[in-house]
Design a protein that fits this description.
Elements: H1 6-19, E1 28-32, E2 40-43, E3 53-59, E4 62-70, E5 73-78, E6 82-83, E7 89-96, E8 116-121, E9 143-149, E10 157-159, E11 166-173, E12 182-187, H2 188-196, E13 203-211, E14 218-229
Parallel strand pairs: 9-11
Antiparallel strand pairs: 1-14, 2-5, 3-4, 4-14, 5-13, 6-13, 7-12, 7-14, 8-9, 8-13, 10-11
Length: 231
């Protein structure tokens, strides 16, 4: 009889647990406004002597990433990975000052872009270290490259002229929007399926690059933000 008063307390505790709201799931896994580069590592390629310069600058009241190439190629790779089935949406905002006269997404000699955003998927041969992932060839995993192509084109998705593991997805092309901030938004899972005919591995990371080593030209481009979030 002396244990009976405890029963209502236990019942109340159980009901509290079951009726408590679940913790809210985060809507974003990545949301970088480029106040610094602490989340990114340098990404270098073999046999490329000159590297693109990346810096943080102000654009009005906002910070952004500035990329300057001159006969160079290198990029930045995100240090962390994410699950593309939990966070399938990718959004970024970019601006390009100039394109390349010799740029051509169909040839190795023209395979330069004033800005490209990579999604690199965990696949056979995937990198052991994010920091030096792109120091080896071929690409460490199947890759989507969202690009700003130099010449006007109606192409939307094409094979990379350098690797069967990579597909180029042309988001902007030509000079009509030079000097303007342009927002892009994609579904990474849908794009992978369209590119490779199957659904992707669940783990991926991001990289960004401005390169001019093939055309031997120069360009300046910017990223104001990049986000990975739930559908």
């Amino acid at each position: 009889m002396r244990f009976r008063p405890i029963i209502p307390i236990i019942f109340a505790a159980v009901m509290f647990v079951f009726n408590s709201p679940l913790p809210a799931r985060p809507s974003h896994i990545i949301c970088d406004n480029f106040s610094d580069l602490s989340s990114w590592d340098d990404m270098y390629f073999k046999n490329v002597r000159y590297h693109t310069l990346y810096s943080i600058v102000k654009d009005g009241d906002k910070t952004c990433l500035k990329a300057q190439s001159y006969k160079s190629a290198s990029g930045l790779m995100l240090r962390s990975a994410f699950n593309v089935y939990e966070f399938s949406r990718l959004r970024w905002r970019w601006k390009v000052d100039n394109v390349y006269e010799k740029g051509n997404h169909k040839t190795k000699e023209g395979d330069d872009y004033p800005m490209r955003v990579y999604v690199v998927f965990k696949d056979e041969g995937f990198f052991a270290s994010l920091g030096n992932a792109f120091s080896a060839d071929p690409l460490p995993g199947k890759t989507l490259m969202y690009i700003w192509e130099s010449k006007e084109t109606e192409d939307k998705m094409v094979a990379s002229p350098r690797s069967s593991k990579a597909k180029l997805i042309i988001k902007e092309s030509g000079e009509s929007r030079l000097g303007q901030w342009v927002s892009e938004e994609v579904n990474m899972v849908d794009d992978y399926h369209a590119a490779f005919g199957k659904y992707p591995p669940e783990t991926a990371t991001l990289a960004i690059m401005n390169d001019a080593d093939d055309t031997q030209e120069a360009s300046t481009s910017y990223l104001e933000s990049i986000e990975v979030y739930r559908d």
